[in-house]
């Protein structure tokens, strides 16, 4: 009873907070007829502002599709996706592009940076595309936080994988987006660099109040978040607050067993 | 392995086609040129295949299409004597003239742009095959003065029907002739290649061309059955008086064909040079395309190596692709060549070589040449990328980011630098050292420079790109910055793409500088050496009747008229330019700067020579010179030496009287008119216009208009060269499209990322457009720069030949650069559209 109370408390609090993004009845179907695959099946999900959320699930569970649709990179077959107060499923390419530029940040698993630009130019890319001036104090703070001060003039090819991911994180943060989507941001990193990146993401949530949604299949990565949403067969099957690596792993194994049994 | 290459080809049909484009265009130019050349050959095969068994003519006269031939003739009584030769069935006298032109109903000259206007007498002499060279298609043959027959095509072009009154202009004693069209005839061999035929009865022809004397140009002797042409020719030779010769029709036809082919061989050389340029430009694009294709497939190639394929096998697999590309490109190019031949035919028709009646001739050798050239160029160009593919380390298959093993550019830049140095030397020697064959030095120098700059341009082009980048960043911010960065990230690729455009523009701007200089030089020369108020001349470069000059002298207000009569002369076995003039009046209209002697003595066997001629052949006043004038050899004495004439190159001057004695036709090339002091210029001009009113070929011009007329051929030549070089530029543009399109494919993930972080489609298109413009501008700046240097050197090299003024046509060169910018914008259209259509998510997740 007490455990359920402790679970309920933050839920109530997050409901009081405004949702940074909201997914309602999101369905994504690939192909048609015999080859039809339902990747997302009426998913409902609220992503609270100022929270670090992990989306987990076995391969093929639809977790990447969910993130792509939520971020406006992929179109939904049915349902709604709200970022702030905008239903992005109704937006045309031009407005969607502007939304991605101004209100959303991205961190991909690999190939996050433009090879011809320096680290600093990469960080400022979304702002300079928009023709906006960076807030110098904020830029300095972000660069300081990711510890890249002495690497700003380097090209991506001169940076280590971990450094490249930190540049990507800085780029995602610098425009102060309403929400950052991270797609397996530590997938290509060794564990030390991965931990560094995760710690940095954690800090940006705690210190700057940034909202982050991260897709991962690594229970350790998920343990850095506030909330883990589990997906299987295109549906939200469970969620967990204040996760630890052990509990996440256990839950994952549980789903695998259930899937295998079924 | 072969199967793997084959599959890879089929999987990339679009890229295959794009890389084949350069080959298609180059080969089509080669094939088109060859088809056109063969067509010319065939057309004249026909026209010369119309000669009789044996022809008698004055000894050593030149061919039938020689406008400045002799006026020496065969006397009429010889015809009857020849008819009685053993073995002869009949003998017919031929009267022929090449400057008889038809004036159309609308008052315009028909033909006359290089092709002769044949004036013939009618006779029944059969050709060697027994047929008649001309077959009547309507009406009857002319029987008396005032009747003519025209060839069908000419009658049609001029709008005349049987019964109409035809206006003709000739350079004979009677410049204007009008006669009733009594019939039309068809030439046995079909096409006349733009020439026209006017047939008179023999009496009228003799009246027009020989002042009514019973004389002939040649005599055709026809053999009896069973007598061979050779037998008859030697029998006729026995019967001939000195100064005449007999020749079999077959030999004469051969002679004529050879002289025509010689005269026209420059056309095929000219066309093939441009085909070569197109292929040269194309080879850059093939190198580029294969380099990119190999780079994109590097992981796949490394995989093949990891699976156990040898270096040679990988190299061969790429070469096999090149082989197929070459094969496909050559085949399509050959087909396109037909279309191009039609275009070239139309182009030359506007210049007076009208082959529209001749069917295009396709010989197997054309196909062989097209395939050989197409395959060889493709394979050679693909060799370097193929070798690099073989060097791919197998471990690259496992790596995430695969970079092609790229050798340092040091070797390449060093080679390029050597070539640039050699080129500069060549240009400097040719342009400024005053050596013989200076133009060749300049040509080779420019070639070396172009190659050298192309090789060093990955490095040498950086300042240009950097300068563009500064402007881009200021105007387009990050998008401009990224465009600049993209343009320099593959320096070789950018350089090769720009080089293709550079080559075309180098030649275009070089020609443009040279042409402008030539025109400026003409203006200056005419300005300096033109004392006459008016010039009477023939718009089509044919001489006109001396009777016109006499009439001009009668116009009120004309103080003096001085004719210039271009005479065909031979010296030391080669042709030499020269003219007959009136020694007294000529100096008043064309200021001649005498070095020695005087023109007053220009009569009898005296000549004057210019400084250059005197120096080259080591003659001075008093020297004896052996000269062939109008086909007659003779010994002449040098009476004067003068400084080279600026306006026209005339190494030798004769007196009119001397020319008449040698049998030069009474036809003037130009007549210079001086007005009397105090006379009304406009009235004199009106009077002169009245004289030439009915002669559409003869015009009256003042100095400015005359200069304009002299500049005309240069403009025409430049237009032709621009049209042909246009092809090289088209190939270069396709090259930019190709490079950009392949780059877009290569950078798919990057484009996806940019789109994901908020780059709009428009910004993406702008980025590609700017990259394209940067490449095009690089090519344009290098090309125009090299062209300026080359044109300057060429002008200097030919300063001694009269091109002594340097003119830089900035008004023409600046648009070339601007045009290159537009070309860049256009070239980015398709790749830009493709890039903008990429699905963001799919792009970012591609391998």
UniProtKB/TrEMBL annotation, chain A:
Protein name: ABC transporter ATP-binding protein
Keyword Cell membrane assigned: no
PANTHER family attached to this UniProt entry: ABC TRANSPORTER RELATED, IMPORT ATP-BINDING PROTEIN
Keyword Nucleotide-binding carried by entry: yes
Residues of the ABC transporter domain: 21-258
Domain of life, source organism: Bacteria
Alphabetized GO MF terms: ATP binding; ATP hydrolysis activity; transmembrane transporter activity
InterPro entries for this protein: AAA+_ATPase (IPR003593), ABC_transporter-like_ATP-bd (IPR003439), ABC_transpr_LolD-like (IPR015854), MacB-like_ATP-bd (IPR017911), P-loop_NTPase (IPR027417)
Entries under SMART domains matching the protein: AAA
Keywords on record: ATP-binding, Nucleotide-binding, Transport
From TrEMBL, chain B:
Compartment(s) of residence: Cell membrane
Principal location listed in the UniProt entry: membrane
Lineage: superkingdom: Bacteria
InterPro entries: ABC3_permease_C (IPR003838), MacB_PCD (IPR025857), Macrolide_Exporter_MacB (IPR050250)
Residue span, ABC3 transporter permease C-terminal domain: 273-394, 724-838
Transmembrane segments: 16-36, 266-295, 318-348, 368-386, 413-432, 438-456, 495-516, 719-745, 770-793, 813-832
Keywords: Cell membrane, Membrane, Transmembrane, Transmembrane helix
GO CC annotation: plasma membrane
Molecular functions per Gene Ontology: transmembrane transporter activity
Keyword hit for Membrane: yes
Membrane topology listed for this record: Multi-pass membrane protein
Domain named MacB-like periplasmic core: residues: 17-238, 494-690
Family: Belongs to the ABC-4 integral membrane protein family.
PANTHER family referenced in this protein's UniProt entry, alphabetically: ABC TRANSPORTER PERMEASE YTRF (PTHR30572:SF4), MEMBRANE COMPONENT OF TRANSPORTER-RELATED (PTHR30572)
Name of the protein described by the UniProt record: ABC transporter permease
Annotated organism of origin: Intrasporangium chromatireducens Q5-1
